[in-house]
Amino acid sequence: MVWLFSAICLTFSLHSFDIRFVFDTIKIKCMNPGTFSSIIVNPVISLGWTAANWLFPPQCAGCGEPGMVWCQACQEKIQRIQHKVCPLCGVPRADGVLCSDCRQSKPEFDWARSWANYDPAMREIIHQLKYGNNIALALPLGGALVQLYRSAPYPADLVTVVPMSRQRRLRRGYNQASLIARAFCRAAGLPFSSSVLRRIRQTESQVGKHPRERMLNVKDAFAAETEFVAGKTVLVIDDVFTTGATMRSCANALKQAGAGHVIGLTAARAGLHQEEPLPAAAARAY
Ligand SMILES: [Zn+2]
Ligand SMILES: [Zn+2]
């Protein structure tokens, strides 16, 4: 109930009263593939959410049309990553072979893919999710990641997310990656835990940092619990993959704790030209 209390307090304190934020929080936070939830809780929550949608119709985050949180036409405008990619990190490559980054330094994760390019349309969607309290956007993004997951080389035993710093969490009120992961797990029928990874030291903002600086900034910043991950395939979900430094650092912590395989899924891929400094707007996504 802590999250429900937090959502209501947050609504009254940080934002103007937003009934949709409260209902969307209840809907997404109650997503659990457990048997009890499936039979009793989820139908009740879904009914309440349907009523909330009827009373307070959502608007498309792309075009503003009422009726859906993100309409089909706007989703189809998103530039998907569908062609040949580096088999490890998923960066688009015409020849479909290992990219130079993965050849120079093999990532700690075993496979990572992103759903779409972090172009202006996708950036708007991510920003509305992260900074605009439009948390219902986690539902279509989580669904999109299920499509990507079907091509994963290892079936996941457990799904988790990149942990957010306490200060940022308090400021924003929620971790957008957790919301996407919960929606993903509900659709994929996989267990979710937000406490598999934890931050063991503070990191600076990644904004404006070169790829090497980003790598050093998050190096050894995370730890994982052996009892949760030993011998398992862990899927890490995040909203944006920029240089992969954060995903690498999380995978390193999971492997050190005994994880068998680590795979990663992200909604968007930024910084495709990794040798160049990131534009500030893209870096803000971290
Ligand atoms: Zn639209
Ligand atoms: Zn690669």
Write the layout of secondary structure elements.
Layout (H helix, E strand, L loop, with lengths): L1 H12 L5 H11 L5 H21 L16 H5 L23 H5 L6 E7 L2 H12 L6 H12 L8 E4 L4 H7 L3 H13 L8 E3 L11 H8 L3 E3 L1 H4 L3 E9 L3 H12 L4 E9 L10 H5 L2
Parallel strand pairs: 1-6, 2-5, 5-6
Antiparallel strand pairs: 3-4
Helix pairs in contact: 1-2, 2-3, 7-9, 10-12
The structure holds zinc ion (2 copies).
Structure description:
This protein has helices at 2-13, 19-29, 35-55, 72-76, 100-104, 120-131, 138-149, 166-172, 176-188, 211-218, 226-229, 245-256, 280-284, and strands at residues 111-117, 158-161, 197-199, 222-224, 233-241, 261-269. With 286 residues, the protein is an alpha/beta fold. The protein has 2 domains: 1-56, no CATH class; 81-284, Rossmann fold, CATH 3.40.50.2020. The strands form 2 sheets. Strands 1-6-5-2 form a 4-stranded parallel beta sheet. It has a two-stranded antiparallel sheet with strand order 3-4. Strand 5, helix 12 (245-256) and strand 6 (261-269) form a beta-alpha-beta unit. Helix 2 runs antiparallel to helix 3 (35-55) and helix 10 (211-218) runs parallel beside helix 12. The longest helix is centred in the first third of the chain and has 21 residues, at 35-55. One zinc ion (ZN) is lined by residues 86, 88-89, 91, 98-99, 101-102.
